Amino acid sequence: MAVARPAPHAALEHLTVLYRGPLSSCNYGCPYCPFAKRRESPEEQEADRAALARFVAWVEAQPFEVSVLFTPWGEALIWPRYQQAVTHLSRLPHVRQVAIQTNLSGPLGWLADAGRTRVGLWATYHPGEVSLERFLTRTRELDALGARYSVGVVGVPAHLPDIQALRDALNPATYLWVNAFHDGRPYTRAEREALTRIDPLFEVNIRRYRTRGQPCAAGDTAISVDGHGTVRRCHFIPVPLGNIYEQDVRDLLAPRPCARPTCHCHIGYVQLPALGAQDVYGAGLLARIPEGPDWADPGAYLDRARQLWRAGATPR
């Protein structure tokens, strides 16, 4: 049977790109992270610098609107090249949003030169790596700069007092998200209730959704790109679709059902149309900042998550 292929240079108004270059080093030593305290050689740093510059130039040249989320294997914003890349992209007229994951350990003053309505920071607090007061000082700096950001933590049960203290001291207007912790055991009821009081959307993240065959925007209006320019539907499906430096990316895009048995990561499942994450996050989707019309009452979003889960997956 013939395989349907996308029409050449199909019309495209907007593309979301999750970029993950060669950078795989971090200045933190979190025990749950494989890149903790890893340092790169000058040669590795240069390779990442060259890959980043090539990607930024590619975004510059596109004839359609682009949004970019940097998802490095490590901490990127301690390096001036990433500060400059985010700033530059945020000032391009055809870039809707540019977001980046960070631990907030690097300088923040560069944001004053960025298009702050387009920049979003996905900031993570790591108890044991930075004091609560130091982290809160950084968030106050963001507030003073008028920056858009969300704050998050990994939901390690032993860190519950630290997470609660963060919520109590954080700007009440700042969303605090909690990522489920993978330690081989389910959360107790008390732990789940405590974390849900802190993050009203925590219930969405503790579920593993059966997604094979489900419609997904990944590979159609959202893609993952690595430092070589290789395009994949998302970070979790290794099969390449092509290369942005060798082909017109529009020729690689097409609606496709999910090929994975399950999906349990925020940057993956928010691409499921059935979940309707856009209604809660709106323009803040890439930076995990709820800015959508349903954020005041996310009940419908939670109901859709429950319906997806009832398809046969199990909670973590």
TrEMBL record:
Amino-acid biosynthesis keyword on record: no
Gene3D superfamilies: Aldolase class I
Keywords tagged on the record: Iron, Iron-sulfur, Metal-binding, S-adenosyl-L-methionine
Full protein name: Radical SAM protein
The organism of origin for this protein: Deinococcus sedimenti
